[in-house]
Amino acid sequence: VGLGGEPGEGGTDSLRRAAGAAVRAAGTGSVAVALPHEDDADLAAIGEGALAGAYTFTAHKSAPGEGEDREITVFSTLDRKEDPASVLETAATISRNVAWARDLVNTAPNLLYPQSFTEQVQQVAKASSGKLKVEVLDDKALLEGGFGGIVGVGQGSSRPPRIVVLSYAPRSKKVPHVALVGKGITFDTGGVCIKPSAGMLTMKSDMAGAAAVAAAVVAAAELELPVAVTGYLCLAENMPGGNAQRPGDVVTMRNGMTVEILDTDAEGRMVLADGMALAAESGPDQILDVATLTGACVVALGPHIFGVMGNDEELRTAITEAADRADEPSWPLPLPTDLRSGLDSAVADLAHKGDRWGGALTAGLFLQEFAKDSDGEQIPWAHLDIAGP
Question: What is the pLDDT of residue 64?
């Protein structure tokens, strides 16, 4: 497989892509991968790329699992002191959880809905070697707990919403605590502001943020990372049923703010806002939300780059740097203060959508209102709009 240029010129990205392309092209059966590498980062990229290239989704085939069991051997020139076996074991753990996230995204929406998603998380957490805890807020608990955002989004569906709290904490209590909040719309029709049929075709993937968060928490636990991680999976189905939310409705969010609904197809920020408000109550050091949130971000950055916004420049920079190391293209986007007035409402504390122009940015400005503690102080927060990738 061609790497292009001089050895090492393309960095880990070229190694990752080459390994994936080679394993994918090799088809079924065992395959050996021998690519040049200089350090553990190179070797990890080769291992992760090879496993990504081997991924298939056959759960809905009449012969599920066919062709999925493959033996992949990765040869390494690193010596034992650099512990290549451990590097590849870590890559396998990460890749296994990435594959689970991909499985969730690929599962048909009649089979993956808030309750079945919840059950999958419970099963994976129970089977995992990591130290994981699962708490589920069902529709009754969400209603009683004042989660007006996610309750409103899910009220048009016969499959009620859930918030799943998946947490990992290392033995040491003196570690930073990161809260991850994932958008989990298991199917998005747009509600009564219904999408055109072509725009609905891929909307089973509107839960990719929650899938990424769930997989990240499990991976963190299995790798025993020195950081406490709590994932908030905000799961709902956005349907135009007889009890569906309407434009003009006003709902009260978990943090007590009232929000005027303008477009029922801008539902993601509503479930995220409730999840962020709940996350803020635990006093985390940082909140990160991950969401297939806006078409506007895809217009701005194309289909392969995700946008990063936030109220803390240091955190936003750390995320873009981490994305570079993981070979996942990102780009920082601003939260212009002059656009904030577009979220003013005459009848509520906040309008839930701004003007068409800068739509990804006003979505970020909306979410920023919920990254606050009980005293109204900002918690370091970043928003990853993954609608493109």
Answer: 76
Quote the CA–CA distance of 69 and 72 in Å, as a whole number.
10
User: What are the CA-CA distances from residue 139 to residues 104, 153, 243, 260, 261 (Å)?
Assistant: 22, 12, 15, 21, 20
Q: Which of 70, 96, 195, 340 is catalytic?
A: 195
pLDDT over 70 at 7, yes or no: no
| Residue found under tokens 């978990």 | 254
Q: What angle do CA 347, 350, 354 make, to 5 degrees?
A: 110
pTM, to two decimals:
0.97
Helix, strand, coil share of the chain (percent; to 5): 40, 20, 40
Element (H, E) at 162: strand 162-168
195 among known catalytic residues: yes
Burial class of residue 285 (count of CB atoms within 10 Å of its CB; 0-12, 13-18, 19+) = middle
Query: Cβ(330)–Cβ(307) under 8 Å?
Result: yes
pLDDT number for residue 66: 60
Question: In the 8-state DSSP scheme, what is residue 240?
Answer: -
Cross-strand partners of 291: 385
- Render pLDDT for 74-128 as a digit per residue (tens, 0 to 9): 999 999 999 999 999 999 999 999 999 999 999 999 999 999 999 999 999 999 9
Which of 269, 316, 353, 372 is flagged as catalytic?
269
Told to judge if 133 belongs to the known catalytic residues of this protein, a careful annotator would answer no
